[in-house]
Write a structure and sequence with these properties.
The structure is a single chain. With 167 residues, this protein is α/β, with parallel strands linked by helices. The chain has one domain: HUPs (Rossmann fold). Helices cover 41% and strands 19% of the residues. It has a five-stranded parallel β-sheet with strand order 3-2-1-4-5, sandwiched between helices. Strand 4, helix 4 and strand 5 form a beta-alpha-beta unit. The radius of gyration is 16 Å and the shape is globular.
């Protein structure tokens, strides 16, 4: 019997958006198991703590439907992505590509990861057209300025953002 196909989907998820959830659902259908890796990433100055981000992503996964959540695990990581991939026995790194502007960075990152870990393949999924433009930092900016973010994140995430940014 062949070994299960395990992939990881890494990101900061500050917060998780509808665009991320779309990629997660589509990736999970291609794999036996998908590990969503929430990067500690203090350099990005996240507004939610690592534990909060993991909890929020887990909650989103519980609402995915089609039995997909059974195939998804959410865990935090720090350090090198390829070390995390090896630790999880993952052979695939999933990335979402939104626009041509994402390509340079993704190309560079996947090439460097491939040099360090040739056994791990990066697979890019194109963001669905309705989510092409979403970025977590813009969602935060809109929420901070009192705008409505309900088209970009789930109602759960929108209310958590509202709570965090109150005052
Ligand atoms: N839908 C919506 N938004 C998306 C998206 C999608 N499909 N794909 C990406 N984004 C957004 C993210 O929300 C994020 O927005 P923000 O910058 O406004 O917050 C932005 O695009 C960048 O996302 P991403 O490229 O995934 O960066 P990230 O910070 O979320 O994650 C890591 C980057 C964690 C994968 C990367 O830093 C890493 O691998 N770190 C580990 C250290 C390491 O191994 N380094 C060597 C790499 S060669």
């Amino acid at each position: 019997m062949s070994s299960p196909k395990i992939g990881i989907y890494p990101g900061t998820f500050d917060p998780i958006t509808n665009g991320h959830t779309d990629i997660i659902g589509r990736a999970a259908r291609l794999l036996d198991k998908l590990v969503v890796g929430v990067a500690v990433n203090p350099g990005k100055g996240p507004i939610f703590t690592i534990d909060e981000r993991v909890e929020i992503v887990r909650e989103e996964m519980n609402h995915l439907g089609n039995g997909l959540s059974d195939r998804i695990e959410v865990t935090q990581f720090s350090g090198l992505l390829i070390d995390f991939a090896h630790q999880e026995n993952a052979t695939v790194i999933i990335r979402g590509l939104r626009a041509v502007s994402d390509f340079d960075y993704e190309f560079q990152m996947s090439s460097m990861n491939a040099k360090m870990a040739p056994d791990v393949e990066t697979v890019c999924l194109m963001a669905s057209d309705k989510y092409q433009f979403i970025a977590s930092s813009l969602v935060k900016e809109i929420a901070k300025l009192g705008g409505d973010v309900s088209q970009f994140v789930s109602s759960r995430v929108a209310s958590q953002l509202g709570e965090r940014l109150k005052g």
